[in-house]
Amino acid sequence: MKAVHFGAGNIGRGFIGAILQQSGYEVTFVDVNAELIDRLNQDRSYQVVLADETKESFTVDGVSGINSQENPDKAVSAIAEADIVTASVGPHVLPFIAPVIAKGLMKRAEGSAVNVIACENMIGGSDQLKAEVAKHLTEDVAKKVFEFSGFPNSAVDRIVPIQQHENPLTIEVERYFEWVIETAGLKGEQPSLKGALFVEDLVPFIERKLLTVNTGHASIAYNGLLKGYQTVKEAMDDSEVVALLEGVLTETSLFLTDKFDLDQKDHQTYVQKIIERYRNPYISDGLDRVGRAPLRKLSAGDRLTYPAVELDQKGNEPAALEKTIAAALKFDVPEDPEAVQLQAWIVQDGPEAALEKASGIKAGSSMSERIITYYHQSN
Ligand SMILES: NC(=O)C1=CN([C@@H]2O[C@H](COP(=O)(O)OP(=O)(O)OC[C@H]3O[C@@H](n4cnc5c(N)ncnc54)[C@H](O)[C@@H]3O)[C@@H](O)[C@H]2O)C=CC1
Ligand SMILES: O=P(O)(O)OC[C@H]1O[C@](O)(CO)[C@@H](O)[C@@H]1O
User: Fold this and answer.
1) With 357 labelled, which of 36, 68, 193, 252 sits at a CA distance of 20 to 30 A?
2) Interior CA angle at 32 toward 31 and 38, to 5°?
3) Alpha-carbon distance 163 to 53, whole Å?
4) Which Gene3D superfamilies match (predicted)?
């Protein structure tokens, strides 16, 4: 069986590619990073190392790579013959992989079913990828193509920090992982993916994950950076950062347990497990990475603004989320294009207007005023 995975990066090699290989697929990675692709074609395998006391490692073999910048047609043919297509390139990159996927789906034998699964930290990733693919198909071709190609949404959870190894393919990952895929969007036979969970309705799973794992992570990053820390470890040793982490998770727990009628005890166990994961001494994770792409993370449907606005509308004052949003406005990393854009908006129009542009939180609203007060209070 053949799998095509877009994004030979941290999650691509450290999580999705490994699951695909363990499930019996020959994995072809598609990427624009020539170093990764050339090495994949040279070695045809790589090591995954577990970041815990065991330092257990395993080999992912039978892999290869296609540089979609140099050989777009090869990527198109690989899609035409694939039994499954997955992607972990970053939400902002989905529009750039869509044309190749559209051409590949058009090239498939009439009616041969395939599923295309976005594995991004976002709600509705595959829906968005499908909409981007549709832009490159005429209406009647799209109708035909989407009869046999499914775009089930998924939620992926495994912490894979940015890391350097002698072999650039080696990847160190936490032992924990969760890959939840919705059955609603599947076409043809349900793929058998070792360790993945298939559910009818993904929404509770993706929202629970995004608004717990990622919201917590973002609060550590933005509040930690504000206090001058560089890593999750340093930040987690600071009681004020941990208090804000516990605050945002209490606030999102209120939202999630209410919206999805979750069992409080079970949810608290899930929350505690995640705080333990942040404290993993075998993982060194940079706050710049965890807080990367601040415009995405401040956007209305993402991990900070979405729960804060929902809670505010229900009459709760999510102070920890608001303080974290204020801290996110101070995310100023010159190598991060979204951070540069955010800071430019603040210089041009002031923090309140920048907040509205990034998040949709209306300037002049009581929530905006509270956030901006926190913004001016923090150093
Ligand atoms: N790193 C983590 O701990 C986790 C990341 N994720 C999600 O997975 C996605 C990827 O994240 P990471 O693996 O950390 O990032 P990464 O930067 O390590 O990997 C992204 C890969 O996509 C490649 N890429 C960029 N443009 C491309 C294009 N046009 N065509 C093909 N490949 C292209 C890059 O060269 C890179 O190798 C993001 O949506 C992230 O939110 C989800 C869970 C955990
Ligand atoms: O990958 P994103 O969306 O930029 O978020 C960053 C953090 O969220 C996680 O992906 C957790 O799922 C972390 O591993 C990652 O550092």
Assistant:
1) 252
2) 75
3) 18
4) N-(1-d-carboxylethyl)-l-norvaline Dehydrogenase, domain 2, NAD(P)-binding Rossmann-like Domain
**294-349 per-position pLDDT tens digit:** 999 999 999 999 999 999 999 999 999 999 999 999 999 999 999 999 999 999 99
Question: Which of 61, 96, 66, 71 lies closest to 82, judged by CA?
Answer: 66
Residue bearing the CA closest to ligand 1, atom 38: 90
Domains (range + CATH), the chain: 2-201 (3.40.50.720), 204-377 (1.10.1040.10)
Task: Check whether 110 has a pLDDT greater than 90.
Answer: no
Tell me the C-alpha distance between 279 and 25, whole Å.
34
Q: Please give the number of the atom of ligand 2 that sits closest to the Cα of 157.
A: 12
Amino acid identity for residue 154 in this structure: S
Amino acid present at 116: V
Question: What contacts 318, CB < 8 A, 6 or more positions away?
Answer: 248, 251, 307, 308, 311, 312
List strands edge to edge, sheet with 57-61.
57-61, 45-50, 171-173
Q: Residue 352 corresponds to which tokens in the numbers above? A: 């309140």
Q: Is 121 close to ligand 2, i.e. is its CB under 6 Å away?
A: yes
3-state class (DSSP) for residue 319: helix
**C-alpha to C-alpha distance for 358 and 183, rounded to whole angstroms:** 33
Place of tokens 């009647």: 140
The answer to whether the CB of 48 falls within 8 A of the CB of 173 is: yes
Burial of 7 per CB tally in 10 Å (0-12, 13-18, 19+): buried
Ligand 2, atom nearest to 292 Cα: 4
Dist. CA 44–CA 25, nearest whole Å: 14
> First-to-last CA distance in the chain?
55
Model confidence pLDDT, tens digit, residues 60-98: 999 999 999 999 999 999 999 999 999 999 999 999 999
By alpha-carbon position, which residue is closest to atom 35 of ligand 1?
Answer: 33
Residue 271 · residue 253 · CB < 8 Å: yes
CB distance 170 to 179 below 8 Å: no
With 0-12 / 13-18 / 19 or more C-beta atoms within 10 angstroms meaning exposed / middle / buried, residue 281 is: exposed
